[in-house]
Amino acid sequence: MSSTPEPQPAARADSDASDRTRLGATLTEDGADFVVVAPRADAVDLCLLTTDADGAITSERRIGMHGPVRGAWSAHVPGVRAGQRYGYRAYGPWNPSEGLLFNPRKLLLDPYARAIEGAPRLGPELYAHAVDADLSPTYAPFLPSELDSAGHTALGVVTGEQFPVVPGPRVPEERTVIYETHVKGFTHSMPGVPPELRGTYAGLAHPAAVSHLRSLGVTTVELLPVHAAFSEAFLLQRERTNYWGYSTLSYFAPEPSYATRAAREAGPQAVLDEFRGMVSMLHEAGLEIIMDVVYNHTCESGMDGPALSLRGLDNLEYYLHAPYRPAQYVDVTGTGNTVDFRSTRAVQLVLDSLRYWAGDVGIDGFRFDLAVTLGRDASEFQSRHPLLIAMATDPVLQNTKLIAEPWDIGPGGWRTGEFPAPFHDWNDRYRGTVRSFWLHDASEMSKGRPGNDLRDLATRLSGSADMFSYGEYPGGRGPLASINFVTAHDGFTLRDLVCYDYKHNLANGEDNRDGTDDNRSWNHGFEGPLPEGMGGGPIEILRRRSSRNVLGTLLVSAGTPMLLGGDEMGRTQGGNNNSYCQDSPISWYDWNLTTWQRDLIATTHFLINLRDQHPVLRPTAFASGSTADGDVLPDLSWFRANADPMDVAAWHDPWTRVVQMLRSGTPMGDADLLLVINGSLGQEDVTLPDGRGTDWHLMWDSTWAVPRPHTSAFALAHRVGRGPAARARARASRSGATDCRQDRPGDTTTLDALSLRIYLSGEKLVGLPEE
Q1: Which of 317, 405, 418, 567 is catalytic?
Q2: Residue 533: pLDDT above 90?
Q3: Extents of the domains making up the chain
Q4: Most distant CA atoms of the chain, gap in Å
Q5: Rounded to an integer, what distance in angstroms lies between the CA atom of residue 453 and that of residue 467?
Q6: Smallest Cα–Cα separation from 17: which of 56, 66, 61, 60?
Q7: For position 763, what pLDDT does the model report?
Q8: What are its GO biological-process terms (predicted)?
């Protein structure tokens, strides 16, 4: 490596951009306008680059830009067309103690580039300050690097006209079922997807992948980050990558590595076209797409990180610095840097990015990583932060789904339930409560210790009114504002929740220090997979039942359910609860399914379909416990095992582990729902409550390895007549029915240990699950 002469600002372009408000590169009739924000720069050069077939730069033409006007620099360049590679060089003071890190030897990516060519290659060339071979600063305070980053970093590419994207299906909130997955991991090994398409955008849109999603019944696919990303230096130095993608390089360009080889070889425009084609094909299949977006920080890491884009253009404008210490970042994200959303230009960058993906690319919604950061006015979170209100009211974004991860690691960073409508919040209390009740409490009871009482479980089943009944409008945000989930990309998979008591993250290379220790899991008596010939049949049976308990609870709870991709088939990560750096079989879905895994898929499909068919399973308003006009039942009732109403003592008793929830279906024009839960370690006799005096029809029991062929009692009665004799014949004919009295109010039935049942009432039973 050798130093390069410090470049001098180029002569200014003959013409200024016709519209300074349009940031990025915009094609015009005779060329292109370029606009970039760098308020504290003394000068900015536009660099037009020519590359060879291997992407190596063969020439660089520098053009001085006009400005700054309101912090923006701009130029019009005749003759530029789609496919032009470009970047910027920013000139200004080098004063690290004041947070000023201008170094024109660094070729910078346009923050608004819609497509990129190449990827940064980790090395000293990427750093604005001088570093040694280990990429540590060679001096304190920093000295400017004399190495040019051209040829070592990503280039922006001017994009041309786009084909129209098929509009999304706009699934109503109450019917939404989210499936969180990873573009690469989902199809990496999927049978039916051609090898050249596996792990790509095109692979996700292949009929084999779409068929699986459609057959499950999910409505909305939430993709882990697909913005172009660059992994952290400490990972790359250990020959790992940020597989999840939470290290954003560009807020506008799709990640090129998820495109097919053919698209990548055809060029950045083809990569963008493949992404847009995926969106269209999923929309045609009736599926929505939500992007997990990371606006809270960038891949430029801490003050000693690389200068790839925002830091080199204006470090003080985009990043949050300590008060009166501009050389020090405030890090509330745990990544080294935090985007400063007091900055008008930072807010504009996010809003412009969201409008682009929703308006031009057709994305149906966004899940905001560490969303509390987006609402911070420096250290304090404001639920009415201008950025959050702008998202909620923007005419382009108002028809999209907006989902907050409602926490970060800064002061006062836990804010579940505090985002403005129409945001939805990931409900981590729901996750903790369901895990605790079915798994951690059971583990504790197996050791002779009590679990938790039933109050929190009841609150989560009924929509988490303690967090979502408040807000700007009367009645609060409603139960659907709660994104109910038990597993997500970070943490154990559902299978690992029932197989491991402890995390097993050694493969990450961090001595098992990474990842949470708050798993609330239960290995059911043996850690990890059961050895061949161990005779662990009872353990395995109970593990599978516990998985079904979690799925059943998730899909009958008031709120918007989110399923972690692969949980429907018992996908394991070998106990790794932080697979962020595992681009390996640990993270890739294994589609070599055994019988029990196919049974679990069938169970997941059944439960999702039952929820879709019956509005009583997905209420849109909080219950009050009172009886509505025209009804004879309260909208929500709770009963003990003996059918007596729950009382204060029962709610506070940690040894009370049986509860019945009766939800009236009349407000939804549906049957009534009776959920019977046995969270104890032994069988329990349960007396079914009276309800309306009609029969209770058992739709599902978590002890069933697979949903039973459904000849519902009510449906058969419709076919053979509605009299008592007909209903009796129907009960006797139902697959699995052993005692018709189990369906009658006041009768006693026996629930197995750690199990739940879903009953629907007879008189209004409509919309049976499909066979």
Answers
A1: 405
A2: no
A3: 24-158, 624-719+738-764
A4: 96
A5: 19
A6: 66
A7: 54
A8: glycogen catabolic process
What sign has the CA pseudo-torsion 758, 764, 769, 771? positive
405 is catalytic: yes
Distances (CA, A) of 26 to 21, 75, 85, 161: 11, 11, 13, 11
pTM for this model (two decimals)? 0.94
Strands 748-751 and 684-687: antiparallel
- The rounded distance, in Å, linking the Cα atoms of 230 and 524 is 40
- Give me the helix-helix angle, 537-556 and 428-435, nearest 10°: 150
pLDDT digits (tens, 9 = 90+) for 200-216: 999 999 999 999 999 99
Query: What is the token pair recorded at 115?
Result: 């497509």
% of the chain at pLDDT higher than 90: 89
Residue 279's region, left for phi above 0, alpha for psi from -120 to 50, else beta, is alpha
The residue with tokens 């709870």 is 557
- In 3D, which of 290, 425, 421, 436 has the Cα closest to residue 362? 290
Q: Determine what percent of the chain falls in helix, strand and coil, rounding each to the nearest 5.
A: 30, 20, 50
Residue 747 neighbours by CB distance under 10 Å: 16
Pick the CATH number of 624-719+738-764 from 2.60.40.1180, 3.10.310.40, 1.20.1600.10, 3.40.50.1980: 2.60.40.1180
Buried/exposed code over 580-614 (b: 16+ C-beta within 10 A; e: otherwise)? bbbbeebbbbebeeeebbebbbebbbbbbbbbbbb
Task: Name the residue type at position 280.
Answer: S
**What's the fold here for domain 24-158?**
Immunoglobulin-like (2.60.40)
**Side-by-side strand order, sheet with 696-701:** 636-639, 658-663, 673-678, 755-761, 696-701
In terms of Cβ atoms closer than 10 Å to its own Cβ (0-12, 13-18, 19+), residue 95 is middle
Query: Between 12 and 770, where is the model more confident?
Result: 12
Q: Tell me whether residue 568 is one of the annotated catalytic residues.
A: no
Q: What is the rounded CA–CA span in Å between residue 338 and residue 331? A: 6
Bond prior to 172 in cis (omega within 30° of 0)? no
| Spatial distance between the Cα atoms of 432 and 672, rounded to a whole number of angstroms | 28
DSSP string, 490-539: SS--HHHHTT-SS---GGGTSTT-SS-S------TTSSSSPPTTS--HHH
Please indicate whether the domains covering 24-158 and 624-719+738-764 agree at the CATH topology level.
Answer: yes
Q: Write the pLDDT tens digit of every residue in 626-650.
A: 999 999 999 999 999 999 999 999 9
The residues with which 700 forms a beta bridge, in sequence order, are 758
Return d(Cα 37, Cα 313) in angstroms, integer: 7
Q: Which of 125, 364, 369, 425 is catalytic?
A: 369
